[in-house]
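[Meeting: bench + compute handoff]

Bench side (C.D.) handed over the final construct sequence. Compute side (W.E.) agreed to return the predicted structure before the next meeting so the bench team could plan truncations. Sequence as handed over:
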Amino acid sequence: MARFQHFDSKTDGTQGKSRLQVLRKELTHQGLTGFIIPRTDEYQSEYVPACAERLAWLTGFSGSWGMAVVLQSDAAIFVDGRYTVQVREQVDGEAFTPQHLIEHPPELWLEERLRAGDRVGYDPDLHTLDGIARLRKAVTQAGATLVAVTSNPVDAVWHDQPAAPLAQVVLHDQAHAGEDTSEKLERITDKLAALKADALLVSDPHNLAWIFNIRGGDVSHTPLPLGRAVIPAEGRPVLLLDGRKLSNSVADSLSQVADIAHPDTLDTVLERMSAGGKTIRVDQATAPVRLIDLIEQAGGTVSSGPDPVSLMKAAKNPTELAGTREAHLRDGVAMVRFLHWLDQHAPKGTETEISAAEALEGFRLASGALVDVSFPSISAAGPNAALPHYRVSHQSNRPISGGFYLIDSGGQYRDGTTDITRTIAIGTVSDEMADRYTRVLKGMIAIARAVFPKGTSGAQIDAFARQFLWQIGTDFDHGTGHGVGSYLSVHEGPQRIAKIGTTPLEAGMILSDEPGYYRVGAFGIRIENLIVVEPRAIAGAERPMLGFETITFAPIDTRPINRELLGADDTRWLNAYHQQVWDQLSPRLDGDVKIWLQNATKAI
């Protein structure tokens, strides 16, 4: 039995029509023609508390990103390439028409359907400045009006909406953080001086947790306390957390570095800090429109741009890197035990996607250090593996049989966050499957081996992972790599290896390296390690250079590899990597599992 993940489908797309009907009545009551429902909360979180799952409640869609637009005579749900199959399986297509976010975005859909005089509502706590600007332009061009509501109409008709979370806040020990809050605050005020800002609104709970060395449990799988802070260039910060989340000892510790106030007082704090034309730095990615408007109405000036804390947090200090390396060794042991278990049990035909996910969580739990999984495991057999963000449920659960089985999973440990994907051959695979598997592996290796000048962004090396798929006229519809936190979010920005990854990579950043291939209705492949950006010494180099250290250790299945396609350089890298896996993990293993690891890491 899994402890940190469930396999019940908590959404119900069959209720889409009836819920749409009552929502439309509420829109009429509020004088609205339509309403925009994003899949987010007021913090723009990836994982949102149950009370903020408005999109899932209304439509049945459970993906991590999406948006619905409801008009009186039409409704649509917009998703990106990760969810084009999932949305059609979960959502009633007669109630909500699925749309591709890139090919037919919400603003275009609205512009085509709105008429002069229409009033489209939005919740200003759930939208950022950039996001609402695109929607406002489209609505205005149609002669309609975009209206900020004071009461979310979905909340008005969601009668059994859960209460807001109140998980306890805990201190993140200095032995894991590596830098105390006062040092971080000093660095932040230096940044504010450079930005010519009088204060910083910390609207991202990940940054809040990092600054104040705290963790929480308000959302699933990421140890976040939901809250905000205002940090002035001079004077004490104001930390806005519900006091019910704070024990006396935690409150005493935090009060040494900040004034603690209830979240309901945020408006008053911002008005006071904004008075007299003060400049407030706000994060363009997470600050809600309502707070930006409030600052301006109070006489302040908004400086909209990246939160400088995000980049500080992304470059891990030596203590954080040492912790995450240890977490990955611990996690690697669990993965090896799982892969050995899978090799023993899968050929019998008695295991399923759920039983495998439960087994892996059990091996992680056996370490005694697992705090949570870092995301629900993507345990996918056969055609389910062709859904990049597939989440197994009792309804979709498949037996693990011949072909490929994909497992993408991770753990949250107090010293680090892990994320690893392996694709395993169960029995024989076709020549086509071996070809695609090898091309994905070559792409992963190409990133791992990359050397590049300081100042290079992830977008500039993203094609390294895709080139071997491009050679045969195919690609994958997700980024090659995302940033990873230190006992924080498994999907951390601003660092990423993707077509839109414009942030220069810096030493200490942790990223994933995970190209893939997906044949809808047939099979899917993804191979993923985590890597750390590190300085790279090159004799005669004219510029500072960077490369990657691989910190994930677990065997990569060599059985489906097309040896001729892999090539000599890639083979040398793979053999060297497997030697590292053996050297790092074998002292922590014994018995049959150790023998299995020796065979799994043999040179090819």
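W.E. noted at the follow-up: The longest strand covers residues 403-409. C.D. will use this when planning the next construct.
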